[in-house]
Design brief:
This protein is mostly helical. It has one domain. Helices cover 83% and strands 0% of the residues. It contains 7 helices and no strands.
């Protein structure tokens, strides 16, 4: 009789053990989402800071263009036509650098906006995950499906493909500083400035193209992440309420915007002014 009672206690304990295992499976996914959000916030802050720094450099280049224009006008008035031509040549180079910098600022602004949208989507997903964790703690062992399915989905979609590595967005500070070096301190240094500019031209082109390529690679990762999210969402939409449809529509719009940016980057790299 004692043996039968022990068997009954053991049979009653096993479902509780399974429930405990299922409940503990959710927090790691939630922690993973928190870590992803921290990384996304850092990357968004870095992108905004780089865009602001680029705007400051653009202002300095604008001042440099105006200074070169005035010096060229003075050279023409004093009959120094050769010096005037050299100054105008330098002005053209700085203007080209400004155009590249404007395109770069625009891309950084668009990328920052897309990062903010992804952050908003991740925050919504985190809230839903936390609600699921709360529901999981109250769910009986006879109905573990609602606990396992979301955590498995989130754990699959939150591994290597979720991390945005924006190391390639490290702006080439030295590149813009080289543009400012062409401003002559005196008319006697005009030719030396031109030689330095031509020597650094090839390196500037390489780093600019590498910068564009890096942005395209990171946007490709975000695009793959959104496609994975949409695939899972479409599978689960059958038993979701109407508000879920608006979230999927919003994610689809973000995906379309990222694809437009990637197409634009491809066009710039193929037809841009690269020497």
């Amino acid at each position: 009789m004692m043996a039968l009672n022990l068997g009954a206690v053991s049979a009653q304990w096993r479902p509780c053990s399974r429930l405990k295992t299922l409940c503990l499976a959710s927090p790691p996914a939630t922690d993973n989402l928190r870590q992803q959000l921290d990384n996304l916030h850092k990357e968004a802050d870095t992108t905004r800071a780089k865009a602001n720094n680029a705007r400051l450099r653009l202002m300095r280049l604008s001042e440099a263009v105006e200074k070169l224009r005035r010096q060229a006008a003075v050279s023409v008035q004093t009959g120094k036509e050769y010096d005037a031509r050299e100054l105008l040549f330098q002005k053209k180079k700085v203007t080209q650098a400004m155009e590249k910098l404007k395109s770069r600022i625009e891309l950084l602004d668009e990328l920052s906006a897309k990062l903010n949208e992804v952050i908003s989507m991740k925050e919504t997903l985190l809230i839903e995950n936390m609600a699921l964790d709360h529901d999981a703690s109250e769910t009986e062992a006879t109905s573990p499906v609602r606990i396992v399915s979301p955590t498995k989905e989130n754990s699959v979609t939150s591994d290597d493909d979720q991390h945005l590595d924006l190391n390639s967005l490290q702006c080439q500070e030295e590149e813009e500083e080289e543009e400012l070096r062409i401003i002559p301190e005196s008319e006697s240094k005009n030719e030396e400035s031109i030689v330095d500019k031509r020597r650094t031209g090839a390196n500037n082109v390489y780093t600019y193209d590498d910068f564009m390529k890096g942005i395209d690679q990171q946007l490709d990762k975000i695009e793959q992440e959104l496609e994975t999210f949409l695939r899972y969402s479409n599978l689960l939409l059958g038993h979701k309420k109407k508000p879920e449809y608006s979230k999927v529509h919003h994610a689809t719009e973000i995906l379309a915007g990222i694809r437009r940016i990637r197409n634009r980057i491809t066009t710039i790299r193929q037809t841009g002014d690269i020497q």
